[in-house]
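Late entry, flavin-adenine dinucleotide complex.
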Amino acid sequence: MTDATRIHDIVGIGIGPFNLGLACLAEPLGLDTVFLDRADDFRWHHGMMLDGATIQVPFLADLVTMADPTSPYSFLSWLKQTGRLYPFYIRENVYPLRAEYDAYCRWASEQLASLRWGREVVSVERDEAADLYVVRALRTDSGAEEVYRARHVVLGVGTQPVVPEPLRGLAGPVVHSADYLPHRERLQAAASVTVVGSGQSAAEIYRDLLDGIREGGYRLDWITRSPRFFPMEYTKLTLEMTSPEYTDHFHALPIALRQHLGREQRGLYKGISGDLVDDIYDTLYRLSASGPVPTTLLTDTAVEDASWDGERFRLRLHHAQLDQTYERETHALVLATGYAAQTPAFLDPIAAELDVDLLGRLDVARDYSVDGGRGRVFVQNGEEHTHGLTAPDLGFGAWRNSSILAAVTGREVYPIERRIAFQEFGLPQDALLPAEVGA
Ligand SMILES: Cc1cc2nc3c(=O)[nH]c(=O)nc-3n(C[C@H](O)[C@H](O)[C@H](O)COP(=O)(O)OP(=O)(O)OC[C@H]3O[C@@H](n4cnc5c(N)ncnc54)[C@H](O)[C@@H]3O)c2cc1C
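Prediction complete; structure with ligand written out below:
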């Protein structure tokens, strides 16, 4: 039962890594915070918890370290407490296993009194008179309503699986990558499986299904709209774009240019890790030593339409460079077609006070607020269109949380780096503009 008179400094909606990080960083500050999630406990991308998969960022990109290296909620603390520190040290690989990151986050979550699991948030309203927000949540166990009153609301509901229009509403064995593992056996029982998509998840699933291709006896296809299977770019000057100053630069650009750059920059963080691309090649090479491998890899190919006849899918495909349309059959589909932020319906009651851009998306201010500069409603990982590639990046979560906590407390409780890069992304500070040189 919630205390209707209690006013929280922060109510966080959703407890993924970003709001969990906020909960960890807020904990030592004496703030009154509560975080709500409809899930029963912390489970990170369980549909993609593939054996041996690692996270794509170094362990310093944990929940807290980039804001407070002395925090008890760091990945290193978890390693020490679970007796894994020396093995991690000897392993000499800064990329934790995905399963480790999941277990680490769950360990941190189990120490925080501010988390409330099994709460589905259904509305956020404004109490004008009290100058507060009223967050209503339904308990998933009883359906009972709980009401939380807050000075600040932080949205950390993550992104939702995207299913391209031609592939929506299909019957038959079709699954989004977010739910891959629970459906793996059913997919492998089909006579043929097709993976659609070009990112890390598509590659991981294709590689995983390659392992069973001989034994399972199925045909395996991989279709992508991209002109090639491109690797994620990890060169250090490019990684400098995951920085406060590049985010400043990107945020200040006109919306049309941000849209264009957003598409163009996909290769930087939506590609496939180079090691995995090579591992897939080496696996194909190894498998081909015992005869043709029943697999087809198709690039530059879009799925234009799909139908299910009760036994198999008929895909209408279009090859862009050849401008050729043709059909192909498959018995099961995996849609590794990505994720996108959506404006949750539970914000409708306060829609009038939220900033929205020309395309109807939340227009997120540089300080991550969305409420007309009042600095009371913030977004985590819903601002890729305004802030660029730092939005979904685990390595930038602590910086964003430090920024949100500075806005909530009115002081820089954790140092906020303004400059970290060697390069300049806009004009250099000493640029002499035409007016200054009397042009
Ligand atoms: C398979 C996969 C691997 C990734 N690996 C990496 C990586 O290695 N490195 C990296 O930098 N990024 C990675 N990402 C990107 C990104 O960091 C993750 O998606 C991350 O989980 C995003 O965290 P989040 O806090 O925004 O939200 P999520 O982790 O998406 O959590 C959102 C939470 O909100 C809850 N929720 C939603 N709506 C409601 C509601 N109405 N009421 C209550 N609760 C609600 C959900 O139950 C969920 O628990 C990966 C993404 C995926 C899909």
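The pocket of flavin-adenine dinucleotide is lined by residues 13-19, 36-39, 45, 48, 55-57, 119-121, 156-158, 201, 339, 344, 346, 380-381, 392-395 (CB under 6 Å). Will revisit in the morning.
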